[in-house]
Write a structure and sequence with these properties.
- The chain has 2 domains: 136 residues, 3-Layer(aba) Sandwich (Protein Transport Mog1p, Chain A), CATH 3.40.1000.10; 147 residues, 3-Layer(aba) Sandwich (Protein Transport Mog1p, Chain A), CATH 3.40.1000.
- 22% of the residues lie in helices and 43% in strands.
- The protein is built from 6 helices and 18 strands.
- The chain is elongated.
- The termini are far apart.
Length: 310
C-alpha cells in the first residue's frame, strides 16, 4: 500500500512540474520560451540572462519579410565571429527553423554560440521572424549543456501581438482614441491608430504618435525643425497649407497642415503637431482622404489632446 502511494505521489509531482513549465514572454514581445532555471528576464535587452553564469539569451522580433535575407546570411559559408560552424534543421514548439552553432569570443572569453532563425508558419501568428541568440561562456558549460540549450530553443513559441502590454510600455498614455483603434505599438516608442476593416494605411485614416529626444531650445528654430520632420515622411508632392506655433497641453508646440499623395498615389490631407519640452518632443501625424478631412480633423485633435506624457 505504501509503495503504491509513493508511486502515485511521484507521478503526480511529475505531472505538476510538467504543467508548471510555461513559456515566458519578455514584456511586449510576441516570442517566448521556457527559460532555464537560473535565467531571468533581462533589463538591458529583449530576452533572458543569468548574471551569475554570464549567460545571455537574446530574442529579436522581426517582420515576416526579414526571414529570406537572414536565411541567406545564415547559409553563407562563413559566419563572422564563429568557428567550428555547424548548421541543421531544428524543430521547435511552433515550427521548424535553422540552428547554427559554433565557437566564438565575448569580451575576450571563449563562448559557445547558438543562433536559431525561425519563422511563424501556422497558428494565430504568421507574420514574424525571430532570431534567437544564446551565448554561454566555457565556465558555465557544465550547467548550460548543449542538451539544455536545445531544450530551451525547442520551447520557442509565438503569441498574437500583446497590444495592451505594449501600450503600457510606451513613454506616454493615449487616453482618448476618438473612435480609432490601436493598430500597432512601435518598438521605437510609438503607436499607430487607424479606422477601418484592415491595417492598410494607404486606404484608411491614421494617427501616428511618437516621441523623440532633443529638439531646438530656441523657439525660433521650432518651425524649421517641424518642417524637417514632415519632409522626412514617406509622402509625395507634399504641400504645406498652414504652419504656426501654438500651445499644446500647456507646452510650446507647432502645427503644420498640408496636402500630399501617399505611396499609392492617392491625395490626402494631413496635420502634424510637435509638442516640445523635457529635453525631447512628442509628435502626432494624422491623415485621411481629402473628402473625409472635415469630419476627421476634430477626432485627430481629440487624440492629440488626450495624450499624457509619463
Amino acid at each position: 500500500m505504501l509503495c503504491r502511494l509513493l508511486l502515485i505521489l511521484t507521478v503526480w509531482t511529475g505531472l505538476a512540474s510538467a504543467a508548471a513549465a510555461e513559456p515566458v514572454y519578455p514584456p511586449g514581445m510576441r516570442i517566448g520560451l521556457e527559460p532555464p532555471a537560473g535565467a531571468k528576464l533581462a533589463t538591458g535587452f529583449p530576452g533572458f540572462e543569468d548574471a551569475e553564469h554570464k549567460v545571455k539569451i537574446t530574442i529579436l522580433d522581426l517582420p515576416d519579410g526579414a526571414y529570406e535575407a537572414l536565411e541567406a546570411a545564415t547559409l553563407a559559408p562563413n559566419q563572422p565571429g564563429i568557428e567550428n560552424l555547424k548548421r541543421e534543421t531544428f524543430a521547435f514548439n511552433s515550427g521548424t527553423g535553422i540552428l547554427v552553432t559554433g565557437r566564438g569570443q565575448k569580451d575576450g572569453v571563449p563562448v559557445q554560440k547558438w543562433h536559431l532563425l525561425a519563422k511563424a508558419a501556422a497558428g494565430p501568428v504568421q507574420d514574424l521572424t525571430t532570431l534567437i541568440n544564446v551565448e554561454v561562456p566555457d565556465a558555465a558549460r557544465t550547467v548550460y549543456t548543449d542538451a539544455l540549450v536545445r531544450k530551451v530553443l525547442a520551447s520557442v513559441t509565438f503569441r498574437p501581438t500583446p497590444i495592451e502590454e505594449q501600450l503600457g510600455l510606451l513613454p506616454f498614455k493615449v487616453s482618448e482614441l476618438a473612435g480609432f483603434r490601436v493598430m500597432q505599438a512601435l518598438p521605437t516608442g510609438g503607436v499607430v491608430l487607424t479606422e477601418g476593416p484592415d491595417d492598410d494605411l494607404q486606404k484608411q485614416p491614421f494617427v501616428i504618435v511618437s516621441i523623440g529626444r532633443g529638439g531646438p531650445a530656441d523657439a525660433g528654430e521650432r518651425g524649421r525643425f517641424a518642417r524637417d520632420l514632415l519632409n522626412a515622411s514617406p509622402l509625395r508632392e507634399l504641400a504645406v497649407r498652414s504652419a504656426e506655433p501654438m500651445r499644446i497641453a500647456g507646452s510650446p508646440g507647432y502645427e503644420i497642415r498640408a496636402s500630399a499623395k501617399n505611396l499609392a498615389g492617392q491625395p490626402i490631407s494631413l496635420v502634424q503637431w510637435v509638442r516640445f519640452g523635457g529635453g525631447g518632443f512628442l509628435r502626432v501625424v494624422a491623415g485621411s482622404r481629402e473628402d473625409a478631412w472635415d469630419g476627421m480633423f476634430p477626432r485627430f485633435r481629440a487624440v492629440r489632446d488626450g495624450i499624457e506624457v509619463k
